[in-house]
Design goal:
Radius of gyration: 18 Å
Structural class: mainly alpha
Largest sheet: 2 strands, parallel
Number of strands: 4
Strand content: 5-15%
């Protein structure tokens, strides 16, 4: 049963064709085998404007929807999850800036991200709570205009990529409810 609209089918086929023709199975396998970040493939995704698929047009993106994004992620993962994750992790972070960032953060980070010049990494998981975002215990408090962090993270996905901005999930209010 095909539940995709003709436009969604065309989009899915476009992404699949792009992965075959512009990125390729052997490139993705080599990056996986050598544990190398897929800089060349990432740049090609950025050239298409797809890093901004869900970013509103007035913020410099394409203004697409979550279903189109899901189809893109599925297509980018055609030959390996790591290639898709190289796009998904930074996009997740960019969308946090779109929805929750200040005007200054949007100005500083969105344009370089959309151009493929900057990447984002994310650190959520902690000992004892795993990736349960509501249960993180790492704290951040402002002190003399700087942020002081106290806690432990297990890893930071994408942190070794060039020009990566590290994003860490922390609590700034220990009394805030866990949603």
């Amino acid at each position: 049963m095909d539940f995709l609209t003709p436009e969604q089918t065309l989009w899915k086929e476009t992404v699949s064709r792009f992965v075959d023709q512009e990125v390729g199975l052997e490139y993705i396998r080599r990056c996986d085998r050598e544990r190398q970040y897929p800089y060349e493939g990432y740049a090609k995704v950025a050239e298409q404007g797809w890093l901004g698929l869900m970013v509103p047009e007035d913020e410099g993106g394409l203004g697409g929807d979550i279903f189109s994004y899901a189809l893109m992620c599925e297509g980018l993962g055609k030959y390996g999850f790591d290639f898709a994750a190289a796009v998904m992790v930074p996009t997740f972070n960019a969308m946090n800036i779109v929805h929750h960032g200040s005007a200054e953060q949007k100005e500083a980070y969105l344009a370089p991200f959309l151009a493929g010049e900057m990447r984002f990494s994310i650190s959520i998981s902690e000992p004892g709570v795993g990736s349960d975002a509501a249960s993180v215990t790492t704290r951040a408090r402002e002190e003399d205009g700087d942020w002081v962090l106290n806690g432990q993270k297990l890893w930071c996905s994408g942190a070794l990529a060039e020009n990566a901005v590290l994003n860490m999930l922390v609590r700034t209010d220990p009394e805030a409810p866990k949603h």
